[in-house]
Write a structure and sequence with these properties.
CATH topology: 434 Repressor (Amino-terminal Domain)
Order of helices and strands: HHHHH
Radius of gyration: 11 Å
Shape: globular
CATH superfamily: lambda repressor-like DNA-binding domains
Amino acid sequence: MDDALTIKLCKYINEHFRPNYKSNRDFALSCGIDEKTVRLIQQENYNLSVKLLKQICEAQNVKMSQVLQAINE
């Protein structure tokens, strides 16, 4: 993914998904990912794989297409 897309995806996750949890740990556990990954996403410079994005979206009951549409990609 290019840098602009990476930043948009990270921002979207930080603004729309992460605030629904009291901690990074809770968010990570709900998505089945490592807490370190959540911290890297918060830095908005983490190159998410399609698999990871799908995993996060499924945990949030959101389609990947909805996220991509929301960030105009």
